[in-house]
């Protein structure tokens, strides 16, 4: 059957499901198995949704899953309702990001009500990603990553919580919320430095925290680097720490050539990503008379 055939069949199923729901509300329908009619309607909506998916009509699929979710709620099957809302969200993701968020939020409400915080956190991340890539609303993405991190922490899933918090810190710094970013980087670095498997990441987080300090105030950065070396002696030998010291020296002498040279040397061994480049440019701009590039 081709896509248009699938779509026709799906539309027919939707109409039949609606009829079932209406007849379940009637006096006789209510007396004679109203609930079983609603269950049948649920099944029909789900089948219609899958046919719409095959026909790549994502909005119609999302809508059909939504109808099923509402009926499951009426039948008090919370788990099935939440699952259908998630299915609806995933379908809408391809056509209507805002509607996808609404469905995922509906699922989250049910999951948190049931005490299923880990799965709620997972859906908060999906919403955050939609805000990142589709709707480009970074403030809202941050809020959902923070909520996910809270739920993960409550469930003792610390590494999942840290992943979300690092996203918050990274975006926070981009939005010039340096204090927030510093607190997170320091906290995550402190949590990871005693873990033999994660120890190497700690130096990266201390490095990022120091850069955020540096943008705000050179002296703060200097003190922060000293503090990190004391807390985590392995930091002293890292290339990141050596770079910070060279940058601090260049900044103190207001020498933008030396600053650029140190960055270039570091970059030749480990490539700077977009975030680090942005932060280093912001620091470099605080050197008097600098044009603010890293060339």
Show unreliable segments: 26-32
Please state roughly what percent of the residues sit in beta strands, choosing from under 5%, 5-15%, 15-25%, 25-35%, 35-45% or over 45%: under 5%
Write down the overall mean pLDDT.
84
Order of SSEs: HHHHHHHHHHHHHHH
Oligomer: single chain
Largest sheet: none
How big is the Rg? Answer: 27 Å
Helix proportion range: over 70%
**Which term fits the overall shape?**
elongated
| Strands, count | 0
- Report the structural category: mainly alpha
End-to-end gap: 59 Å
In DSSP terms (H or I, runs of 4 or more residues), the helix count works out at 15
Pfam family, one: SNAP
Main location: membrane
Family: Belongs to the SNAP family.
Membrane topology: Peripheral membrane protein
Q: Overview of this structure, please?
A:
- The chain has 15 helices and no strands.
- The chain is an all-alpha fold and 295 residues long.
- It is elongated.
- 43% of the residues are buried.
- About 2% of the residues have low confidence.
